[in-house]
Amino acid sequence: MFRFRGKDLFSVEDFWQYAYSQLDGMAETIAEFLVARALGIKKAENVNYWTAYDMAYRNKRIEVKATSYVHPWNKEISKIRTFSIAPTNNSYWENQDAEQKLSRQSEVYVFCLNTNKDIGKRNALAVDDWVFYVVPTFVIDGYCKENPAQRKISLNVVKRLAKEEVSYDRLQKAVDEAIVLSDSYYIGK
């Protein structure tokens, strides 16, 4: 409860209804929530916006990127152009040398796409509308070997790099498989 002079004024739920009742514009946050729940994560330990990755799962760092065709601010279907894969310097989070080489901070990326293209039926809560592409970070780094600082990747490239497109019910298995691939890759290096 929000309190003033010892009395309850309004609840956190009241605040959430005020600030976050328009879910259509929150694709990134909803996607992170869906991924976390698929992986059995009740609350990610790093839910603020200034972390090097979005969540930890099986001692691996997971980065979640999301987009959709329909947005509340647009009266037309959006073209899906790119996802951000910008390398970062993790010295802010881990108190390392500021001159540290830029790199992608996760072992696995989960690219989330809300496939709904019907503006009249916008519903960010329709989990059936979401598809997921799981890609080990070493695969992205391999794709970007000519340009390691590459900041964006297209949906078409994500589709090629991902083993498959998965629905929500297969997401955990796809992430588990990507972790095994990632572990095998780094053990073999």
Order of helices and strands: EEHHEEEHEEHEHEH
Strand order of the largest sheet: 3-4-6-7-9
Radius of gyration, taken over Cα atoms and rounded to an integer in Å: 18 Å
Major β-sheet annotation: 5 strands, mixed
Tell me what the structure shows.
With about 190 residues, the protein is of the alpha+beta class. The chain is about 30% helix and about 20% strand. The chain has helices spanning about 10-20, 25-40, 90-95, 135-145, 155-160, 170-189, and strands at about 1-5, 5-10, 55, 60-70, 80-85, 110-115, 130-135, 150-155, 165. The strands form three sheets. A five-stranded mixed sheet has the order 3-4-6-7-9. The chain is globular and about 60 Å long.
In a few lines, what is going on in this structure?
The chain is 30% helix and 22% strand.
Keywords summarizing the entry:
two-stranded antiparallel ribbon, five-stranded mixed β-sheet, 189 residues, alpha+beta, 6 helices
In terms of topology, how is this protein built?
Blueprint: E1 2-4, E2 7-10, H1 12-20, H2 27-38, E3 55-57, E4 60-68, E5 82-84, H3 91-94, E6 108-114, E7 130-136, H4 137-143, E8 152-154, H5 155-161, E9 165-166, H6 171-188
